[in-house]
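[step 3/7] fold_predict: job queued, chain A
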Amino acid sequence: MSTQQEQGGRTIRCLIAKVGLDGHDRGAHVIARAFRDAGFEVIYSGLHRAPDEIVQAAVQEDVDVLGISILSGAHNTLVPKIVSGLEEYGAFEDTLLLLGGIVPDEDRAELKELGVAEIFGPGTPMEETIEFVAENAPANR
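[step 4/7] structure written:
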């Protein structure tokens, strides 16, 4: 599947963000590289970003995809703040929100109800994640 939009040829823009105090960024770097290799335009936030910083970056960079990497267990606190911020700026409907990292099964339904499109845990094949983004990113809908 092409990473270019059929009409207009716009490249999918992705922000990979590390939220909160989580200092483990290997997975974020791996997915950012895989997305780049797949032809997506990738912006990496760096470590220890506050939810409002991530929202500002997503809005300013006009991203199609916001991938949140979190391993700290604070997803039920931090992800709702990001969703709320995106809604405040009118960017939520136009942003595919993904979550990667350690998310217990019992938390997944609530996060998806909140608007997380998909949750990718450790060991998810890169091809699966790339295909999901290519098929579901707003630039390609």
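[step 5/7] annotate
Residues 3-8 have pLDDT under 50 and may be disordered.
Helices lie at 26-37, 51-60, 75-88, 105-114, 126-136.
exit 0
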